[in-house]
Amino acid sequence: MTHMQTTADGTTPLDRVWNTRSQFYAVFIDDYRRSIARVDPVLVELCRLRMARLFASRVDLSLRLKAARIAGLAEDKIAALSNYDKSPLFSERERVCLGFAEQFALASYAIEDADVARVQTVLPPEEFIYFVKALSVIDQFQRAAVAFGATPAAVPPAGMDEFDVVVMH
Amino acid sequence: MSTTPRIPAELARGFTMLGDGSETPAARIAIPAELTRLAGIPIASDGSLQIDPLVHECIRLFNAKVQGCQYCMNARAAGAVQAGLSEDMVEQLRDFERSTLPEKVKAALRITSAVASAPQLVTRALLDSARLRFSEQEVIDIVMLSVHTTGSKVAITLGVDPGREASSRVFYPAEGVYGNSPELKRAVQAMAANGLKVAAADGLAYQVKVI
Q1: I want to staple A38 with a disulfide (CB 3.0 to 4.6 A). Which of A130, A151, B83, B208 is the partner?
Q2: A119-122 own/partner pairs: CB under 8 Å, 24+ apart
């Protein structure tokens, strides 16, 4: 289900909106996949899910990055994301990056030099560049999914083969 | 917001607002040129979002102001200028609800504002209100463009926004910065055939009020 009245064909509700501009979606999702693949999978997945909670992106909350699971990211840590700044499950690197991801999602215009410098104490500059790009495409995907009012499906949206779907309770 | 690089110069080198497909870190993170074309920038073309040029530009500039992108804020699309964009309109974008902007522009910016601030605010009621002025596909395209034009966050966060010095003028669709896709070339030819100015040599008399 989505908020939109005119939809194209597609396996998931979100697909049926994006496929009205299928070329745009194809190029965007290719950029999305390349961008998140350049970042540590556990780190990018934690940030993606934290942002998804902030935006209330039900589609994103229903997805799990396979590479993060393979790297050891477990559901108990995901469940603790709302308390990442205090939970012992998170490293300092993860806390700093999660804080930055929140700032990027909610008020990127207010990011100061000190905020960037703080992240670069835990991520070398080149990794930081790719981290910011990953946050951007995640941010865009989630804003679109929420704006379209898309609900989760039994399979990931088209082109998101790196993800599994989890059953949400 | 920053136009002073927050990353080492050797990594910032070669950054452009549109990707050229090369493999430097800066090139990898740039927005793909084809994605920008498909967003209807600089003009609508085959397969792209299809939004009225004036509405399109207002959405782009609104988000440019929200994100604080100096380069984007100070660029003006030739198609939008010829569709009636004025600097008075541009000044009113941030406070659009109390402005004299056309109702169609306001309806679009309500969506853009919601997408940029909190996408949960894009409700069925908001979309139904937009549907009084736009087709369903146009409403979808407005959401997509509103999302796409948040992409300047990367450049701003990294401090590689080219700055107002690099824009502060009208940008013409025939300029090389937009690439050479056959779809864009056809759209530019069609625009010229309709008597509109597509290149700097055509000379639009328009003064950008630099922010």
Answers
A1: A130
A2: A121/A96, A122/A92, A122/A93, A122/A96, A122/A97
